[in-house]
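Dear colleague,

Thank you for sharing your sequence with our group. We've completed the structure prediction you requested, and as agreed, I am returning the results in plain text so they can be pasted directly into your records. Please verify that the sequence below matches your submission; if there's any discrepancy, let me know and we will rerun it promptly.
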Amino acid sequence: MSIVRNITLLLCVVWSANSLANSAYESLQFGKYKQQIISDLKKACHPQKKTSDEVWANKILSNEDNKTYIRDARIALERNNEKNYWDAISKVECPEM
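Please find the predicted C-alpha cells below.
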C-alpha cells in the first residue's frame, strides 16, 4: 500500500512540476509575441508622441475590430504564418495620439 501511495504522490508532483514549467514557457512566449506585435504596429502607425507600450496597446485595443486583428496576428505568429501575420497587422486601425 505504501509503494502505491508513494508512486501516486510522485506522479502528482512530476505532473504539477511539468505544468508549471509549461505555463512559465507559455508566459514567456506570449510576452515575446506581444512585444513583436507592438513593435510592428508602432512601425506601421508611426505614433507622434512617445508613449509607453502599455498605453499604446490599450489605445489600440479600445477598438473592437483591432482586438480581432491582433488576435489573428498572434495566432499567425504561433503558427509561423508570416503572410497572415502581416495581413492582420495591416488591418489594425492606428489610433490618433
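Summary note from our side: The helical segments are 2-45, 53-61, 64-78, 82-91.

Kind regards,
the structure core
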